Amino acid sequence: xxxxxxxxxxxxxxxxxxxxxxxxxxxxxxxxxxxxxxxxxxxxxxxxxxxxxxxxxxxxxxxxxxxxxxxxxxxxxxxxxxxxxxxxxxxxxxxxxxxxxxxxxxxxxxxxxxxxxxxxxxxxxxxxxxxxxxxxxxxxxxxxxxxxxxxxxxxxxxxxxxxxxxxxxxxxxxxxxxxxxxxxxxxxxxxxxxxxxxxxxxxxxxxxxxxxxxxxxxxxxxxxxxxxxxxxxxxxxxxxxxxxxxxxxxxxxxxxxxxxxxxxxxxxxxxxxxxxxxxxxxxxxxxxxxxxxxx
Length: 295
What we know:
By secondary structure, this protein is α/β, with parallel strands linked by helices. 47% of the residues lie in helices and 10% in strands. The chain has a six-stranded mixed sheet with strand order 4-3-5-2-1-6, with helices on both faces. A hairpin with a 5-residue loop joins β1 and β2 (46-53). The longest helix has 23 residues, at 237-259. The relative contact order is 0.24.
């Protein structure tokens, strides 16, 4: 689950593009049906759409459907987690500034003894020395090492494709690069160490894993995506609250404001944020909107 969820974060999508390995072939699957919802008012008037994205897909994967294409055409604006997905210099500068702290203990002392051999293996895989992380906060080390464990390419991210589609229309962001990094930066050290431990526990993302997750996303199987969160990083109550449920609640308020502007937003965020329980469709229904899955 660690790559599925970190992959849903735009920050990780940017980092992953620098650390991809072998390419996966497009998975064999029925006609694509990624999860798309329409949002309407009591009268049935469409106010916007919710679309669950994935940060990477095998080369050549066809994910667009007539319903998705229609939403893209009809929408007046795009709302994403982070807008500047191609600004590598901004990402690098922000990450360096926010993740740097002097006087930290060695990275091996920030993981349980049982995971230290896995840490050494992953450092070797990336050509790192432990000393390279002496001033990197634990959350930053977790993100840096997560990209080594994932062989998928962020260049095939659906969010990037949508931003290109809206090049002539407004693109709004829910968090931005600094906002997303701050979520990790504000985690207590124990939770940061849990995050790093989760990365080390799931230390390899194989081609078959990439294809399996892509297949779940292409099928729009939100129940299966939800079950992916029952283990790994999001099984930790504190991490789940900070990285998923609290963000969903904040986003639902902002999204409701965008829906009420009449600008017909297409809200495209990581699919994990739309999965039950307490996904964005449920939260918006609780605010009085009619949210309907588009088949």
